[in-house]
Amino acid sequence: MTKHVVSRRQLLTAAGGAAVLLAGQVSPADAAAAGVDRQTDPADLIVGCHGEHQSGIVTPAQRHLLMSSFDITTTRRHDVVELLRSWQVAIERLAVGAPLGRNHSLNDAPGDTGEAAGQGGARLTVTIGFGPSLFDGRFGLAAHRPPPLIDLPAFAGDALDPTRSGGDISIQACSDTRIVAEHAVRDLARVGAGAAKLRWTQGGFADPPVRPPGTGRNLLGFKDGTANLDPTDAVRMARNVWAAPGDGAPWMTGGTYQVFRRVRLKIEDWDASSLDEQQDTFGRFKSSGAPYGATNEFDPVNSALLPTDSHVRLANPRTGEASEDERILRRGYNFADGYDPTTGGYDFGLAFIAYQRDPRRQFVTIQQRLAASDALNEYTSHTASGVFAVPPGVRRPGSFVGATLLDP
Amino acid sequence: MTKHVVSRRQLLTAAGGAAVLLAGQVSPADAAAAGVDRQTDPADLIVGCHGEHQSGIVTPAQRHLLMSSFDITTTRRHDVVELLRSWQVAIERLAVGAPLGRNHSLNDAPGDTGEAAGQGGARLTVTIGFGPSLFDGRFGLAAHRPPPLIDLPAFAGDALDPTRSGGDISIQACSDTRIVAEHAVRDLARVGAGAAKLRWTQGGFADPPVRPPGTGRNLLGFKDGTANLDPTDAVRMARNVWAAPGDGAPWMTGGTYQVFRRVRLKIEDWDASSLDEQQDTFGRFKSSGAPYGATNEFDPVNSALLPTDSHVRLANPRTGEASEDERILRRGYNFADGYDPTTGGYDFGLAFIAYQRDPRRQFVTIQQRLAASDALNEYTSHTASGVFAVPPGVRRPGSFVGATLLDP
């Protein structure tokens, strides 16, 4: 057996090297090789990689999530820059369904693992974040650690597995096709070999209903996301999600902060509880999603009509501007990691991802309130956690995510 | 907290009881309650539950699999009959996207867990099989154990986890929407509470490419299923898949035998191997899927041109009629159960399901040959296994899967 590891040089060569890197886009020849035909592929199958913000934040949720985290294994700052450059080239190819690298020789490992061939863009987005540990002494970045990028405090009821938590760099891959999301992380891990090593992954799925269309449901059977922030509301996004120049880390302007929580649900207990108990837990009706005291899902919430320990009331007390400024942009996915009676039954839950301008006054404030009193706590257990600074998008073709920090 | 367990009586009552049971179909009122509108829902979203064979065998593969297995916890044969009757009622409702049971009281646990509300049929199929252990002394069925339902022999290289293998009854749920497949097994487990307990589950996904459309790829990056049996070939199905009256168990006529194998793939080793090595392992070209010596995916295989230890050559030696009669109907799904360096990296592989008339001369013969010599063995490990007799379909409305055995 011949063993070879794909090299970043191979990727850059295969992708047309500097030409692609400088152009910041896939060449027509590469697009043709990938079968990309913009006349027959609906534009929404391809999510652009460039702009003020990274994709995958305000992008409407795709059906599949693969959240992942990497540990940096190199000690050289230069290698980190090259890693991020290589990932950018790779991400731009993945986004249009183009293979990573060509096969120059039968004696080499294929440049692309191949399982997503023919899948097209499938609305893939890849979103990169930097964990607190990236700002330790290794790469001279300590002075640039953004004040909002705190280490999350311990919350009451946490049952975190450190091997499934944290990490130096997060990669959130979302796509409407599962194999495309799986392929993206696997092949980015290959591209990063020698500089970064996969630490953990967490899959998830979101299946909005079809009749009638509307808000998807979580594995507790409740509509989830009814009161989420509106990602098309630019004013609200600027206020609650996007980092601003005055936030203490100029290089993060246009970026945001990502919190990941793996929230396991005690399915057997929940399924045995009464409808009354379930609805009281949320403060909403299960079937319609309407808040207590109202009739329709999107009717205004009157907190006074909700049980004091209900999840909806505690998550957002709706006390005016202070509550409004606390709100986070959630990107929640269900996970169903199987049933195994030897380890406690259903390993089901919520792969919770939230974006915000400052976790200190947003996620942490909300979660401290929930951890103290939420009726839902009886049925949940947070088993993994992470917080990451998500740099702004790539504004200049040829640049890369993280350049504002590492190559300003 | 009030705790209640949904009862089978509740399900039967909610479903209209005897009326639905006898009619063998969902009433117009139930269909309306579920939002079913046959004029606007394409018929192919709903797979019928009745016929000579169970659905989910020759049904074209849906995108998502949830394979599962149950242990019978009752000691009474009567309870097993009631379990299967209740499951049949439930399956007929699930197939059209109707909820299981109505909520009669806020003090009761909901009849349906609710997470699949509004999803419609989503091409759900539920396929039931009986494991060898169902024919032990407990239910007086020993004399009816079909001769083809053997205990699978140990194969070289097996690394089976007994807690993820076997079981008294298998339920294969397939749907184009993941939450529908997950919901089906979870709610069937609830319906069966007191008589059967979930033993294990294994998820899977199949994403056929879109440009051009065609055969899907496995996680090794190769097209998988090119040479599968054609499920529309009735003559071949009768010969290789469907149990016949002379096969030693008349109650199985129109049924088939299901073999499940969880085949873990050593992804890191595979991804580091050369294209040459990968192609030699299969005897096919990775990109096109064409067999060695040919140009196109569906060109005939000339075994003499394939490496002697290649997977394609050993799986089907193509030596004439004997080889033809060995062939199995595969229903293969990829699984990607995450990355966890503490347990060895990627837990990726193939959730292999195959249907056949007689595992003794089909799966076992093939697998013994593969286990001895297949070049692919370097990259695989069978971590779970099961074999089940899949009874014929429900021919009479009001009957149930397994009636030919338990209520003839």
In a few lines, what is going on in this structure?
2 copies of one chain form a homodimer. By secondary structure, chain A is of the alpha+beta class.
How would you sum up this structure, described in words?
2 copies of one chain form a homodimer. Chain A has 12 helices and 9 strands. Chain A has 2 domains: 164 residues, Alpha-Beta Plaits (2-Layer Sandwich), CATH 3.30.70; 171 residues, Alpha-Beta Plaits (2-Layer Sandwich). In chain A, 56% of the residues are buried. Chain A is globular and about 65 Å long. The longest helix of chain A is centred in the first third of the chain and has 19 residues. With 408 residues, chain A is of the alpha+beta class. Chains A and B meet through helix 5, strand 4, helix 7, helix 8 and strand 7 of A and helix 5, strand 4, helix 7, helix 8 and strand 7 of B.
Q: What characteristics describe this protein?
A:
homodimer, 408 residues, alpha+beta, Alpha-Beta Plaits, five-stranded antiparallel beta sheet, four-stranded antiparallel beta sheet, 12 helices, 9 strands, disordered N terminus
Total count of strands of chain A:
9
Determine the N-to-C terminus distance of chain A. 44 Å
State the name of the first-level CATH class of the largest domain in chain A.
Alpha Beta
Strand/helix succession of chain A: HHHEHEEHEHEHHHHEEEHEH
Low-confidence stretches of chain A: 1-6, 13-44
- The appropriate CATH architecture of the largest domain in chain A is 2-Layer Sandwich
Mean pLDDT of chain A: 90
Instruction: Indicate the multimeric state.
Output: homodimer
Residue share in helix of chain A: 10-25%
Secondary structure tally, helices of chain A: 12
The largest β sheet of chain A comes out as: 5 strands, antiparallel
Tally of individual domains of chain A: 2
Structural class of chain A: alpha+beta
Greatest interface and its participating residue counts: A-B, 79 and 78 residues
